[in-house]
Amino acid sequence: MAGKTENRIQQECVMWFHNRYPKHRGCLFAVPNGGNRSPLEGKILKATGVWPGVSDLLLMVNGITTCLELKTDCGHQSAKQKIWENLMIGNGFRYCVVRSEEEFKRIVEPIMTIHGY
Question: Which residues contact 112 (CB under 8 A, 6 or more apart)?
Answer without folding.
Answer: 21, 24, 61
